[in-house]
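Appendix B, Record 12. Input sequence as logged:
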Amino acid sequence: MKRIFRAFSTALAALSLFAMGFCAYAAQTTPDEISICPDGVYSFGGKSAYSLSFPESAEADCTSDSLSTKAEMKLFGILPVKSVDVHLSDRQIVTLGGKPFGIRLYTDGLVVSKTSAVPVENGTADPSAKAGIRCGDIILEADGEPLKTNEQLTQICENSKGSPILLRCRRNGDYFSTTIFPEKDVQIGHYRLGLWVRDSCAGIGTITFTDENTKSFAGLGHGIYDGDSGSLMPLSDGDIVPADIISADKSTGGSPGSLCGCFTSGEPLGRLKANSECGLYGTFSDFSDGDKIEIAFRQEVTKGKAKILSTVEGSEPEYYDVEIEDISYDNSSPSKNMVIRITDKRLIQKTGGIVRGMSGSPIIQGGRLVGALTHVFIDDPVHGYAVFAENMADYNNKIVQKQAAITQ
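Logged structural output:
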């Protein structure tokens, strides 16, 4: 009898450990935030083992368009996994993108891309180092004058004749002031600060979706960063314009390719309002065509087959087959929620997989917009990252609300 009891106890302990381990795994591989429709119907992307338990005393926070509360996620309706935030939300319907667009972005201040020493009579001098200026810093003013172009700073430097210049800067959201002393470059005969700065950038990306109700768009899926400093380009102004893809420089292992395109004539399609970690956002004016589609909630996305809508030649998008291989709910990498693999031989033949310029291409699964392509794996260009479409929609809605509040 004791043997039977011991065996039973051992089996029960092993089962408990297994259940605890499985629940811990489930807690890490499921979202902390879940959206459900007003009718109370929700889905975990085919994972029927999970369910939500709402306490009777749950206090709900009612807003104009949503209901938020806490719920307990359970495994098999019994084992508690974790507490999650539940948002009651209507499914958002948008117009599917997939078309290329030209980007013209002007920075808020001047982004420091590089610093360097200045050749002087007795060797070299480093004004930027003495002033404590680093790569990625944003120079907002010089001697009280707001800076918008590189030429402004160059002229202020030359006019100084070596006199100190007071700079107002921003670094990681914090503001500071510093004094910099221009040095005369003996090789060119002009005063220099030892700073390489950037005031604008241009490129090509892909529109993910547009929202006719709010006259807005979301695209790219990731932010525009300075290529030298790696910092997010601070947006002052900018617009998006029509673009055509002329050809594709194919990706190979270790060398990502890119779409080769040109801006076409015509009025801008919209104005830029935000350059964020998970995409470009702004107003949009051209709603002439495009299919309407529902945005999937993030917990509905599943591993498996999907479609990507992208333009790799001309101006009209095509559907290509992809596979969603991994899903992550880690908010520390907002533009890397999924790993996808290009499986369509047509696309691989044309581009080698994923190339620059395809960023923002919408991903469709189960008839809903689930995400957008964001990055290519440099050593394996048939693989890449993607962002949840719900994340992009949430950010776009915040930008729309912010702009509406400003104009009121």
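The helical segments are 2-28, 127-131, 150-160, 345-351, 389-407.
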